[in-house]
Amino acid sequence: MKFSLTNGKTVALIGDPHLGRKFENGVPLHRRGERERKQLTNFQEQLAQDVDIVVSMGDTFDHPAVSNRVVMDVYNAVEAAAVDRTVIIIAGNHDLPRNLTTIGAFEILEALLDGNPNVMIVRKPTLYRGLAIFPWEWDVSAFAQVEAFPSGEAEVALGHWDLQSFGGDDSHICPTAALKAKFGDDLAIYSGHYHLPGDYEVDGHIVHCTGSMEPYSHAEDPDGSLYVTLTLEELEARDDLHDKCVRVLLAEGEELPSDLDCLALTAKRAAKEDTEVGEITLGDFNWSSILAQKLEPLTPEVRGFIEERLSEVIE
């Protein structure tokens, strides 16, 4: 996603990269690690776009705790890209541990890049050359960030925001009305965080969503660019699946082929024709609310310990 500022500067946005994610489900042993390498190459290419400013829109890392190898790969990619352009990396919810005293991969990356004049690591709301930048902060709501934002003119707001309510904590929903009130009705608003790209209406205003850097599930890839779902008959007619994650719908009695060369192979039993499946939306599931109910009887110390550990291993 690209745009130009009135000052002539060109800007490219990278949707959530989620580097450090492990791709193992359905991946044959001889292709383990291939998807991770492709993901890193994609990130390197996205950083190297021919623009003045490139912005990683949050969730550069998949979790606050990733391997040292992943941290160094990101560091080297950013250092190389920053030779010819400004690189801005916005903190996302996956980058930061809920326990604010914990040091994670994002903080280590920040320390490694400290001193590079062409790199900005954004952990607090920042104004930069017409860009009002809002990172994720676990202890500060999105509305409070806007209210406390330093004075100045901005023509574009960049953030890592929720775009709809999931029935739990709504403190990080994009505060479109507050942003427009602060910076004017002509303000353009862009967000990472939500993995399906597109334009979304939030409180009567449009938010341009980058989506993730690449799809990470079948639900995030409606066009089938990487993830495809096929019947066994459709599968037999395809010869272009080497670089696809394939899910096969199996009817009763059918078996998953064992010799298909693809990035990942999984199966799903097709529902019987007389089975009715109701419509389900993301809003029907709110693990954080369920978790909060279960942890409520515990002491604050125990709750904090459990939440910190869970934040490192679940989305």
Identify the CATH homologous superfamily of the largest domain: Metallo-dependent phosphatases
Q: Report the radius of gyration as a whole number of Å.
A: 21 Å
The termini sit apart by 25 Å
Percent of residues in helices: 10-25%
Count of helical segments?
Answer: 8
Calculate the mean pLDDT score and round it: 87
Number of strands: 14
Question: Largest sheet, order of strands side by side?
Answer: 6-7-8-9-11-10
CATH level-1 class of the largest domain: Alpha Beta
Q: Quote the beta fraction.
A: 15-25%
Q: Describe the global form.
A: globular
**Element-level helix/strand string:** EEHEHEHEEEHEHEEEEHEEHH
Question: What's the number of domains?
Answer: 3
Low-pLDDT stretches are 280-284
State the secondary-structure class. alpha/beta
Which fold does the CATH topology of the largest domain refer to? Answer: Purple Acid Phosphatase, chain A, domain 2
InterPro entries: Calcineurin-like_PHP, DNA_Repair-Maintenance_Comp, Metallo-depent_PP-like
Domain Calcineurin-like phosphoesterase: 10-195
Organism: Sphingopyxis flava
Pfam family, one: Metallophos
